[in-house]
Design brief:
The chain is an alpha+beta fold and 98 residues long. The protein is built from two helices and five strands; from the N terminus they run βααββββ. It has a domain of 64 residues.
Amino acid sequence: MTFTLIFTKEAEEQLRNLKRDRSKISQFKSIVKSLKLLRDNPRHPSLHTHKYHSIKGHNNQDIFEAYAQQKTPSAYRIFFCYGRERRQIVIISIIPHS
C-alpha cells in the first residue's frame, strides 16, 4: 500500500536546489531514497519517523520528521504531515538538521 506524496512549493524548491548543486549529490540521493521509503512505508525503521512536537500544521495537524541521513554533519530531515485524503503524505520541508 503506497502513499501519494504531495510537495509544498517550499519542499519542491528545496529538492530542486539540492538536485542542481553538484556538491550535494550524495545528500540528494539519500533524500530520494528516503522519499521512496516514506511513500512505501512511513514507519520504515531506517526513517526513524517520529512526531515533531515543536510545531503544529494547519488545522492543528501533527507534523512528523523522518531522517534522510544519519550520523552525518548537517544530516537532512524530511518534515511531513498526512494529507486530507486517505494515503496522502504532504512533504512540507527538506532541510539539514542543525
